């Protein structure tokens, strides 16, 4: 049901005894202050008329004692509205009514002391009646004040007529003034009702605006996209927590964009000059997440400020990877069907030739090469098929400190030869969301890779796993470290390309598969050198909240 106060309902409420003007308390307080000033001004102004000799002639035939008594009543009413008394009286209709009765009494005395209805001071009734109509919440009381003012006028008029100071014709102006007072009261009440309606609408609008502002602020603060404001001085001010997290900023102050990220500065400058958005991801530091940026003009008139939106590239890469693998799955299905059968025939034929008693030694070597490379091609097909057919992730909340420790025990039991694998847990609880089966595949491949390179380069069958919680970035890092010579600078950029390998035995899909499994689980995988210059593959997880 609509509760909106319309003009029609306002007019209807004028006839209702318990209707409420509903003027806001702050408006009532302002009206009281203004009206109190009016009381003081009238009282002292009237007193000045009878004290100053040059102005006494303006009031002819006045009763000095009655005149002064009226001024004193108005002053007492004004004093009553100051300080604590005023705050108490204005909070109830009874207090306001009592003050209005004082004002009517004071006005009646001033008017009577200066000649009655014929006095110019009779117009003061209008101010009192109008003020009562505005400030009294109950309309019946407001009308009562008007009736009392009319009664005071009529009594004063009858008194003047009875003592012979005026004739009966004086009652006509008294009646007209009384009608005017009732009209003023009703009009003031109607205007107050409409003012109350307007104030209610304004308050509602302000409440809605404030609510929308809080909602917008809450959305901006908690959204995953980082928002920054860039000015003409090429400084950035982060707006939300995501922006500070992505760019390693600890406060809301302005920071030079070139110091934060030279690559971001280049992309921003290119956008300012050409309006083109570059889609290349960038990193604030080597261990941080890959980011993509977009730009928008904040001030369309003078172009003094711009908005910069920074997002994690991992979900974008995950989506692109999903599309790529869907296409790959169709291709590998055809490859598996079309190549497996002839490959099996070639391998079988080579084995039969090798088993012949009359085969030459050179041909035996060729047969072994055929069998070995057939097995290698078959393994590549199996790996490609496995990549394309991998199931969608089913992430679970994992405490890496406990989970990795348990998995390392399981992994070492499956090794054909003993290996030295150390675990350095994080100081804080490392909670992540990841598919356990996928994480086993990732960790198994990375550990196999670490042990192979450690043994190849140092004859030491050893590896290390270190866990670290980065609270500022809301990330958990897992480093799988080997003791080999490390990856050549020329090969780092191609490590995660499919079919790229530096080993004669590998298929080149192990690291590619690991990176793919990390990305579909919202994590990142990259190669790095530890502060101790050790060779390591780092898996960066998003930290889960408790």
Structure description:
This protein is of the alpha+beta class. It is 58% helix and 13% strand. It has a 5-stranded antiparallel β-sheet. Strands 7-9-10-12-11 form a 5-stranded mixed β-sheet. The radius of gyration is 46 Å and the shape is rod-shaped.
> Which spans of ≥5 residues are poorly predicted at pLDDT below 50?
1-20
Total individual domains: 4
Q: What is the spatial order of strands in the main beta sheet?
A: 3-2-1-5-4
Instruction: Give the overall silhouette.
Output: rod-shaped
Strand content: 5-15%
Q: Please, how many helices?
A: 18
Number of strands: 12
What is the percent of helical residues? 55-70%
Characterize the biggest β-sheet.
5 strands, antiparallel
What would you report as the Rg, rounded to the nearest angstrom?
46 Å
Structural class: alpha+beta
Query: Averaging pLDDT over every residue, what do you get?
Result: 76
Cα-to-Cα separation, first versus last residue: 45 Å
Order of helices and strands: HHHHHHHHHEEHEHHEEHHEHEEHEEHHEE
Features:
alpha+beta, 12 strands, 546 residues, rod-shaped, single chain, 4 domains, Helix Hairpins, 5-stranded mixed beta sheet, 18 helices, 5-stranded antiparallel beta sheet, Beta-Lactamase
């Amino acid at each position: 049901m609509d509760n909106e106060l319309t003009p029609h309902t306002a007019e209807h409420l004028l006839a209702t005894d318990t209707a409420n003007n509903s003027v806001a308390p702050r408006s009532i307080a302002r009206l009281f202050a203004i009206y109190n000033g009016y009381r003081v001004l009238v009282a002292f102004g009237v007193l000045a008329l009878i004290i100053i000799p040059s102005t006494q002639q303006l009031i002819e035939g006045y009763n000095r004692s009655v005149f002064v008594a009226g001024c004193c009543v108005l002053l007492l009413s004004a004093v009553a509205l100051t300080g604590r008394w005023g705050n108490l009286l204005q909070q109830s209709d009874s207090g306001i009514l009592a003050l209005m009765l004082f004002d009517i009494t004071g006005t009646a005395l001033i008017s009577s002391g200066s000649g009655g209805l014929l006095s110019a001071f009779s117009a003061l009734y209008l101010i009192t009646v109008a003020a009562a109509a505005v400030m009294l919440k109950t309309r019946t009381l407001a009308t009562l004040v008007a009736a009392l003012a009319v009664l005071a006028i009529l009594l004063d008029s009858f008194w003047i007529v009875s003592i012979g100071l005026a004739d009966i014709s004086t009652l006509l102006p008294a009646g007209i003034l009384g009608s005017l007072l009732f009209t003023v009261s009703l009009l003031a009440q109607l205007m107050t009702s409409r003012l109350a309606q307007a104030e209610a609408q304004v308050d509602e609008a302000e409440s809605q605006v404030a609510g929308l502002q809080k909602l917008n602020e809450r959305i901006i603060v908690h959204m995953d996209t980082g928002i920054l404001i860039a000015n003409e001085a090429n400084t950035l001010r982060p707006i939300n927590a995501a922006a500070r997290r992505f760019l390693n900023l600890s406060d809301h102050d302005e920071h030079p964009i070139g110091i934060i990220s030279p690559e971001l500065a280049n992309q921003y400058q290119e956008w300012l000059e050409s309006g083109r958005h570059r889609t290349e991801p960038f990193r604030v530091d080597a261990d941080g997440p890959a980011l993509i940026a977009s730009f928008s003009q904040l001030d369309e008139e003078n172009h003094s400020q711009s908005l910069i939106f920074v997002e994690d590239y991992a979900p974008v890469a995950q989506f692109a990877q999903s599309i790529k693998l869907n296409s790959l799955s169709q291709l590998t299905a055809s490859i598996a069907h079309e190549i497996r059968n002839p490959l099996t025939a070639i391998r079988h034929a080579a084995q039969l030739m090798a088993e012949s008693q009359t085969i030459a030694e050179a041909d035996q070597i060729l047969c072994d090469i055929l069998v070995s490379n057939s097995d290698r091609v078959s393994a590549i097909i199996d790996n490609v098929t496995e990549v394309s057919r991998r199931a969608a992730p089913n992430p679970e909340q994992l405490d890496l400190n406990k989970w990795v420790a348990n998995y390392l025990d399981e992994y070492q039991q499956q090794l054909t030869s003993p290996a030295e694998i150390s675990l350095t847990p994080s100081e804080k609880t490392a909670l992540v969301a990841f598919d356990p089966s996928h994480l086993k595949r990732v960790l198994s491949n990375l550990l196999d890779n670490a042990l192979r390179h450690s043994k190849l380069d140092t004859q030491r069958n050893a590896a290390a796993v270190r866990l670290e919680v980065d609270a500022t970035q809301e990330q958990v890092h897992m480093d799988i470290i080997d003791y080999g010579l490390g990856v050549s600078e020329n090969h780092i950029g191609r490590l995660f390309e499919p079919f790229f390998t530096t080993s004669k035995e590998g298929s080149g899909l192990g690291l590619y598969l690991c990176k793919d499994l990390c990305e579909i689980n919202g994590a990142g995988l990259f190669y790095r050198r530890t502060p101790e210059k050790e060779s390591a593959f780092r898996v960066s997880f998003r930290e889960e909240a408790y």
